[in-house]
Amino acid sequence: MAASSAGIGTLLCKNINKQIEIFYPTNRRYTWCVIRRICTSISRFRCQGQIKRKSAPKELVGVVGLEVHAQIQSITKLFSGSQVRFQAPPNSLVSFFDASLPGTLPVLNRRCVEAAVMTGLALDCVINRKSLFDRKHYFYADLPAGYQITQQRRPIAVDGTLTYSHLGGTRRNTLITKSVRIKQIQLEQDSGKSLHDDRRGQTLIDLNRAGVGLMELVMEPDMSCGEEAAAAVRELQLILQALGTCQGHMDEGQLRVDANVSVHRPGDPWGVRTEVKNINSGRNLARAIDYEIQRQVGVLKNGGTVQNETRSFDRKSGHTLPMRDKEGLQDYRFMPEPNLPPLIVYDRPSTAPPCVHPSQVVVLEEVRAGLPELPRARRTRLVESYDILPEHSFTLVNEDGLTDYFEAVVKETKAGPRKVIGWVNQVLLGLLHHHSLSVSQSPVTPQMLAQLLNLQENGQISSSVAKQVFQELWRAPGKTAQQIIQEQDLGIVSNTTEIHRICQKVVDSHPDQVQAIRGGNKKVLNKLMGLVQKETKGRADPVLVRSILEEKTS
Amino acid sequence: MSVVNYTRTLQKVILNIGPRCYHRWVTTASVALRIRDSKQNFRCRLWCGLLTPVHYQYSTEGNTSKVPSVATWEPVLENQLPPAKQVPADLVDKLERLALVDFPNQEGLVCLKKAIRFADQLHVVDTEGVDPMDSVLENRALYLREDAVAEGDCADRLLQLSKDTVEEYFVAPPGNIPLPGREEC
């Protein structure tokens, strides 16, 4: 911003110079004096401008980087053969290695390696053909070994990009696409779960989760607000769910996001960052980040300094609080894992050593060929095959199961995809959100909606009646659309004489509106149309009514 | 002659023969056992053992061994080492906290400094262009296990190992107990 304004200043100066030269080409000395005076006045203005700008400081903007831990969806854990399950009796899914009993060694799970490679390929990362395992040491009761096996020096994938979109703009219906760089993806072990019992002053440790494979995705701090971060995490969730590597439920702890937030003025070096933990949904992520940015701006404006600390998000109050038990900057004493040789991933089956069994080899070509349809490919496919807007396909893919619903309706109805999109995205989705239901729990099935739209296409009902019938179907899903129309006599009124009579009545009872229309104000016609529709209980064909009214009021 | 003298002479003899062939070493224990027989029998058997050397597959004749005949290592002089690093008190505190090792007194600190100085000898070695080795397994293939359940379900055996358990959970103190500060020692 500063650079561009400086550029404008010099441009202004140059333009004025040129003008002066044109005006006074003869007397060069005079020209030079004038130029100098004007230049000094302009430069003074520029300096003043800058001084003014310095006293009113540039806006502090937030810088957000995310660290995402995604639990790999596999049957067994990363380094041991015990099962991975969400809720189980405490300490029942623990093997001797997970409990860190002496004499146990780690044995890597092939499925976890494939999951990490698939995720890396889906996020356009460079897969490191040789990656190494390290130990990260810290003491805590839920880490029985005292160290966590991770990949810090050479992770399995580096340098990727996550492209995400969110609905922005003034009316929140423009698709804004951004991207964030992914620094690395690494495989690591999860720690156990600790339940704090403050009353008795103890912590209860459950090691069921200890040793489960995690993919840590470290993103560069390219984002600037909570909304972008939430959109990025949503896109990541969709990608991981499409790949099948992670189910991505943040509330179940399968996808854990920690945000690193700092504020700075554009052009200045980054400020001190704080880490925000304990976030369990996309919405809470946005709230936490926005609160933290505001808090840091407040601290800096009051003249204080931001501490480098870890804060916990309290979802009830929407505030971040400093976490207890944090002792300054941790030194993890990273050390190469001596029990695990390097992990090698091969390009093609031919590059794998011939004496090794195929089950011992992970081949990039095969993994790449097995990648399913990713969300962004799905969006472009929907836009191309159904000729809908990118914003519509974004909403379709964003909601679980909505794409299948939409495709089922389009298959069974005569109405065009654009009409169906309007119904699905606005009417159906609105009701689902209002009642906090998911698409699979919707009382109106795709077949019922398709029937309703067919009736509308055939001309048996008008569009406003169709909406009424939809509401009825929602409330009482046992009846079909046809039954409701017959019961409530909502069929379209196409009897022209009837409509003429009603229009005449309305025109007669509102002479001043008619005068206004004849005067040139066409918008009043809509009001008259509304009155006619009210008379006919919405059953009249709007196109016919409009033409009759126009004819009567001309 | 005592047992010890016997083994010493034996070692001198074998060293002088040289490393061309590998002999079965006669250990002190077997020497002690044989002493129970008559000494003459023992000497006879010993010499027989010496004169029938066992050739293993890597003993070759006519090929020089890489083990030098005279020791080649030299002690590293003090001036070759980089300057000794000071160990400030807060670094000692940090080390105690990270590694949970106690340096309670001056002797512990002196021991630490000596250990650091000993490790400084590594700086004398020129490692230009050599990749560090982190494990002797680095040329082996990493074994990849199939994703099938093979372990688990031994909660009772694991809980028996802990002194304190509450309803199948392990019990731990609430958070990390901070180490006592330097002043409190």
UniProtKB/TrEMBL annotation, chain A:
Transcription regulation among keywords: no
Major site of localization recorded for this protein: mitochondrion
GO process annotations (BP): glutaminyl-tRNAGln biosynthesis via transamidation; mitochondrial translation
Domain Asn/Gln amidotransferase: 404-553
UniProt cross-references to InterPro entries, sorted A to Z: Asn/Gln-tRNA_amidoTrfase_suB/E, Asn/Gln-tRNA_Trfase_suB/E_cat, Asn/Gln_amidotransferase, Asn/Gln_tRNA_amidoTrase-B-like, GatB, GatB_Yqey_C_2, Gln_synth/guanido_kin_cat_dom
Keyword tRNA-binding: no
UniProt keyword list: ATP-binding, Ligase, Mitochondrion, Nucleotide-binding, Protein biosynthesis
Reaction(s) this enzyme catalyzes, per UniProt: L-aspartyl-tRNA(Asn) + L-glutamine + ATP + H2O = L-asparaginyl-tRNA(Asn) + L-glutamate + ADP + phosphate + 2 H(+); L-glutamyl-tRNA(Gln) + L-glutamine + ATP + H2O = L-glutaminyl-tRNA(Gln) + L-glutamate + ADP + phosphate + H(+)
Location in the cell: Mitochondrion
GO molecular function, one term: ATP binding
Any Gene Ontology CC annotation: mitochondrion
Its EC number(s): 6.3.5.-
Superkingdom as given in the UniProt entry: Eukaryota
PANTHER family: GLUTAMYL-TRNA GLN AMIDOTRANSFERASE SUBUNIT B MITOCHONDRIAL AND PROKARYOTIC PET112-RELATED, GLUTAMYL-TRNA(GLN) AMIDOTRANSFERASE SUBUNIT B, MITOCHONDRIAL
Assembly: Subunit of the heterotrimeric GatCAB amidotransferase (AdT) complex, composed of A (QRSL1), B (GATB) and C (GATC) subunits.
Family stated for the protein in its record: Belongs to the GatB/GatE family. GatB subfamily.
NCBIfam families per record: gatB, PRK05477.1-2, PRK05477.1-4
Function: Allows the formation of correctly charged Gln-tRNA(Gln) through the transamidation of misacylated Glu-tRNA(Gln) in the mitochondria. The reaction takes place in the presence of glutamine and ATP through an activated gamma-phospho-Glu-tRNA(Gln).
Annotated protein name in UniProt: Glutamyl-tRNA(Gln) amidotransferase subunit B, mitochondrial
Organism: Esox lucius (Northern pike)
Species lineage: Eukaryota, Metazoa, Chordata, Craniata, Vertebrata
TrEMBL record, chain B:
GO molecular function: ATP binding; glutaminyl-tRNA synthase (glutamine-hydrolyzing) activity
Catalytic activity: L-glutamyl-tRNA(Gln) + L-glutamine + ATP + H2O = L-glutaminyl-tRNA(Gln) + L-glutamate + ADP + phosphate + H(+)
Residue ranges the record marks as coiled coil: none
Keyword Iron-sulfur: no
Role summary: Allows the formation of correctly charged Gln-tRNA(Gln) through the transamidation of misacylated Glu-tRNA(Gln) in the mitochondria. The reaction takes place in the presence of glutamine and ATP through an activated gamma-phospho-Glu-tRNA(Gln).
Subunit structure: Subunit of the heterotrimeric GatCAB amidotransferase (AdT) complex, composed of A (QRSL1), B (GATB) and C (GATC) subunits.
Descriptive protein name: Glutamyl-tRNA(Gln) amidotransferase subunit C, mitochondrial
